[in-house]
């Protein structure tokens, strides 16, 4: 019976993937997005819909799936980064990460204090930290669209690539304090240690593995040891290795993947495009499974439990809590009002928040129900709102900045 249910799930998922493949290009040009369709398909086909997908919300598999999806996306997006534009406009991601991100966490905690007064203060901070990082996967329609000025694309790309890794130590620290973990050496020393460990190990693993892996790949290609049919495999395996090794030894796998990808960014475009094809395809396939599972096993059961405070926090998280810090931190950068609003709006929440939610779910905090419900509601609202608005707002921004958007942005006029 279990085997029959498994094969039925595989058949339904395969049929849906096949059907989506036929219209993927049309969807990308419309007001819809892949994650919207995948999530709605999971909801429609799951036990709260037609019942064709017999999926249960099992925390660990969903967490691993979401983490691997994010790892592939971060690696490929970082590898595709334009270092020339990034070097000329480093101020935007620096301000978003060093000023905007802390302000977002503070504002998110304040909103939780207002809407969820029954939560412990540490749980309020934890909720804000869980929803602070933006999602590189949901942001891809924007950061890969040439109609968006390069300055804005690269700023959002770097921000989404690093902010989830930066938030990992914060979530770990707040969660440890919330569950009463004994902290050796006192809180300040523990904070410094966790931050240094997560970021330092992630950086070291990403750079070392990618440098070593590319050296071996170059030698294999030069001596004809590899074959054309295996060209798509090495970078997908390298991204997975960067993530898994960093996580295994106490670092941030997300930072490892992003820094590893950045090491590849100066490579010739034609070569990168060929090598990254497998990584990007793997990320797309994993994203399909993640969003279908999210829709089938998470959204349906949570719909009946949504409250007005939860909806209000989700709406604030995607607007004021994100957009106000972005507006404030970009003052003095020469960024136009239209560009500030665009950057502020495109802070989608997704895979990183799902991962954090699952980590918190396992700890059974007193405020668990509120935390998990709010994270799921915010992610679901983000999938819908950011997916629908991506193409229309890209066209709006291009029209506001004119046809020379990239050139203007590179000189600080955006």
Summarize the structure.
The chain is an all-alpha fold and 414 residues long.
What percent strand?
Answer: under 5%
Number of helices: 19
Proportion of residues in helical segments: over 70%
Shape: globular
Estimate the mean pLDDT confidence: 84
Largest sheet: none
Count of strand segments: 0
CATH topology: Na+/H+ antiporter like fold
What is the alpha-carbon Rg in Å? 21 Å
Low-confidence region ranges: 403-414
List keywords for this structure.
19 helices, globular, ion transport, antiporter activity, disordered C terminus, mainly alpha, 414 residues, Na+/H+ antiporter like fold
Report on this model:
- It is a single chain.
- This protein has one domain (2-21, 32-410): Na+/H+ antiporter like fold.
- It has helices at 2-28, 34-45, 59-79, 83-88, 91-115, 121-130, 140-143, 150-178, 187-222, 233-248, 253-264, 269-275, 277-303, 308-318, 320-329, 337-345, 351-361, 368-401, 405-410.
- The chain is an all-alpha fold and 414 residues long.
- The chain has 19 helices and no strands.
- Helix 5 crosses helix 8 (150-178), helix 5 (91-115) packs antiparallel against helix 14 and helix 16 (337-345) packs antiparallel against helix 18 (368-401).
């Amino acid at each position: 019976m279990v085997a029959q249910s498994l094969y039925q799930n595989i058949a339904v998922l395969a049929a849906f993937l096949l059907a989506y493949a036929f219209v993927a290009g049309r969807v990308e040009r419309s007001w819809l997005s892949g994650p919207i369709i995948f999530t709605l398909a999971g909801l429609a086909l799951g036990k709260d819909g037609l019942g064709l997908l017999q999926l249960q919300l099992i925390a660990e598999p969903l967490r691993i799936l979401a983490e691997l999806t994010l790892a592939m996306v971060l690696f490929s997006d970082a590898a595709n980064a334009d270092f020339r534009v990034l070097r000329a406009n480093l101020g935007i991601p620096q301000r978003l990460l060093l000023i905007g991100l802390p302000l977002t966490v503070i504002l998110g905690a304040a909103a939780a204090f207002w809407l969820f007064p029954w939560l412990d203060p540490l749980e309020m901070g934890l909720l804000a930290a869980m929803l602070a990082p933006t999602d590189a996967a949901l942001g891809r329609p924007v950061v890969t669209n040439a109609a968006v000025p390069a300055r804005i694309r690269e700023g959002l790309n770097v921000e989404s690539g690093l902010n989830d890794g930066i938030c990992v130590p914060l979530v770990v620290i707040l969660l440890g304090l919330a569950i009463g973990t004994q902290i050796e050496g006192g809180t300040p020393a523990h904070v410094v240690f966790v931050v240094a460990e997560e970021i330092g190990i992630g950086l070291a693993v990403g750079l070392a593995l990618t440098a070593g892996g590319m050296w071996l790949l170059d030698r294999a290609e030069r001596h004809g040891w590899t074959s054309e049919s295996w060209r798509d495999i090495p970078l997908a395996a390298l991204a997975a290795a960067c993530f898994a090794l960093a996580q295994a030894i106490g670092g941030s796998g997300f930072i490892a993947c992003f820094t590893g990808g950045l090491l590849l960014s100066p490579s010739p475009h034609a070569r990168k495009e060929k090598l990254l094809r497998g990584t990007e395809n793997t990320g797309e396939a994993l994203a399909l499974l993640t969003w279908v599972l999210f829709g089938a096993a998470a959204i349906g059961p949570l719909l009946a439990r949504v409250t007005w405070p939860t909806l209000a926090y989700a709406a604030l998280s995607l607007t004021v809590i994100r957009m106000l810090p972005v507006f404030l931190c970009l003052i003095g950068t020469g960024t136009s009002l239209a560009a500030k609003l665009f950057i502020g709006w495109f802070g989608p929440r997704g895979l990183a928040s799902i991962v954090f939610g699952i980590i918190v779910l396992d700890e059974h905090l007193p405020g668990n129900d509120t935390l998990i419900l709010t994270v799921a509601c915010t992610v679901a609202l983000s999938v819908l709102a950011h997916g629908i608005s991506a193409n229309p707002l890209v066209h709006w921004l291009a029209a506001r900045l004119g046809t020379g958007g990239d050139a203007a942005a590179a000189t600080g006029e955006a």
